[in-house]
Write a structure and sequence with these properties.
The chain is an alpha+beta fold. It is 33% helix and 22% strand. It has two domains: 57 residues, Alpha-Beta Plaits; 179 residues, Aminopeptidase (3-Layer(aba) Sandwich). Strand 3 and strand 4 form a beta hairpin. Helix 2 runs antiparallel to helix 8 and helix 5 crosses helix 8.
Length: 241
């Protein structure tokens, strides 16, 4: 098995060099420059406290196109009744910490280790990492998600919920937000039954990389995100139909 050890410069081997399980490289750091270089090439970090930094490029890749989003009748009803309120980039640290504390069946601990939190908070301050927050009627955080935006692609990292369907509601609003800004797709990275239930589909890595290259021809929508005037109500009506 050949796994590349990264050098000091923020460069990576081509994803075609990855092992069958998707592992491509080991080492390096989580500097903003290296992370942005990784995402632009279809590579992401994923490891735990017991290993060095590991870099992955999976084949197949999970992708969601906006017209494939599936919103269940139950979720539509909750959106229509406005049981929750959704915001963007209001509580990035709270969202990523909740994601880190999420229990995942069959997984001990979390891959969102403290240095990962620190690295993505830096990306957020630079305007490349973004959070979606879902609030209940008492003004408490009920769910959310975060990810990285570069070019016209949003790479989802993790989501959590403290109340049923909260993360699904947040994800649905995010998809409409991105669609309104002519993003190309959401990179869901790893195939899961949950994401597939929301409409994500597996894609051959070569096809994914070609479409990623197309999306990278556009400048990143850098900065703090927010809904435009009147946009939130329009998205609510659209999703609640």
């Amino acid at each position: 098995m050949v796994v590349y050890r990264l050098i000091e410069e923020p460069v990576f081997p081509h994803p075609d060099e990855a092992e069958p399980d998707g592992l491509l490289a080991v080492g390096g750091d989580l500097s903003p420059e290296r992370l942005l270089s990784a995402y632009a090439a279809g590579i992401f970090p994923w490891y735990d406290d017991n290993s060095p930094i590991l870099w992955w490029s999976l084949n197949p890749r999970l992708v969601l196109y906006f017209d494939k989003l599936h919103v269940s009748k139950r979720v539509r009803r909750k959106i229509r009744k406005r049981e929750y309120t959704v915001t963007i980039d209001r509580r990035f640290k709270d969202v990523i910490r909740n994601c880190a504390g999420k229990f995942r069946p069959g997984q001990a601990g979390t891959w969102i280790v403290p240095e990962m939190i620190e690295a993505y908070v830096k990306l957020h301050k630079l305007g490349f990492a973004h959070s979606v927050e879902v609030w209940n009627s008492d003004g408490k955080l009920a769910g959310g998600l975060y990810g990285v935006s570069i070019g016209r692609v949003f790479s989802g990292e993790s989501m959590f919920f403290l109340e049923p369907d909260a993360s699904k509601i947040g994800f649905s609003y995010l998809v409409q937000f991105l669609k309104n800004r002519e993003f190309h797709f959401v990179d869901c990275q790893q195939p899961t039954s949950h994401l597939k239930s929301l409409g994500a589909e597996e894609m051959d890595r070569d096809v994914f990389l070609d479409r990623l290259d197309d999306a990278m021809e556009f400048s990143a929508m850098q900065g703090i995100w927010d809904f435009a005037e009147g946009e939130y109500d329009l998205i609510t009506r659209t999703l609640g139909q």
